[in-house]
Design a protein that fits this description.
The structure is a homodimer of 141-residue chains.
Chain A (H helix, E strand, L loop, with lengths): L3 H8 L3 H9 L7 E2 L5 E2 L4 H13 L4 H12 L5 H39 L10 H4 L11
Helix pairs in contact in A: 1-2
Chain A binds a DNA duplex (30 and 30 nucleotides) through α2.
DNA sequence: CCTTGACCTTGCCCTATGGGCAAGGTTTTA
DNA sequence: TAAAACCTTGCCCATAGGGCAAGGTCAAGG
């Protein structure tokens, strides 16, 4: 009999994560023993594996739930999946660009720090930060 | 007299953010009017500006607080600042690398999706996700 | 049989940075 | 003087769980 701890260990998740997925509707509530223990069947293992995979691709629990809901209703989730993957791909491009811009800004700040050492110029708190021109506020998405 | 809304507008922040910074100890609690309104002096403006700049560099409120605490105790925060910038720089390199790896994985999933369309192979939920080999779990830091 | 340790249950607080709303008081403007 | 615009505090929301508490349950060993 698969308890929550055992199925968690088998799928590489924590028991807490498994319970969370149940609470969020990603997996069906399993049967319970008389004393209230969750008892999973082997059928639940690949679903949890799928969740892990999808999470590794950057999908949120909400998005994964939407996919699984479609599938449970007998519909093809693949169109949704490709849409989501495309969105995340675009998002990742965005974030990489933002991080690269931020890296440039940070490097400029660092260079300025080394240069300003010993020059002893004054600033409200620290010229290293205050002297930095932030080009475009990296909008997180 | 600078109310919270006015100083927020002047610094490009929201009133809520300004109150949050006060609650978290980044700025000193301002005087209050008899009716309880916060009344800021112009001295608070550049501090809030500093917070904005530091945030734009990716520093957390906690880190910014540490910098400001040092400065308020009359010590030079610049060593801490350079440390933090170096840490964030390394962190950003890491995250860029992770995102690039994830992008590669996502692109492979997408390519597989296009290729598998019409091939009609079966999977638990969607072969697009299940067929993807996740190379290294992108460890978020 | 009993104990001990490992497991399970629910529930609550915590993370970071605010956004949004509610209920109520104050100030400013028309 | 009345309405609009502002302020106050407090609470809930978001992500994806981690950690802890209090208490119930199960399996192995003595």
């Amino acid at each position: 009999m698969l308890t929550v701890g055992r199925i968690a260990a088998r799928t590489g998740l924590s028991p807490k994560a498994v319970r969370l997925y149940e609470a969020n509707g990603l997996i069906d509530p399993p049967e319970r023993t008389a004393s209230g223990y969750r008892t999973y069947t082997d059928d639940a293992v690949p679903v949890l594996g799928f969740i892990r995979q999808a999470q590794a691709l950057g999908l949120s629990l909400k998005e994964i739930k939407d996919i699984l809901d479609l599938q449970r209703r007998g519909e093809q989730p693949c169109a949704l999946v490709t849409d989501l993957l495309d969105q995340h791909l675009a998002d990742i491009e965005h974030r990489i660009a933002d991080l690269k811009a931020l890296r440039t800004t940070l490097k400029r700040a660092r260079a300025q720090a080394d240069q300003a050492v010993g020059r002893g110029d004054e600033a409200l708190v620290c010229h290293i930060i205050e002297g930095v021109t932030t080009p475009t506020p990296p909008e997180e998405r």
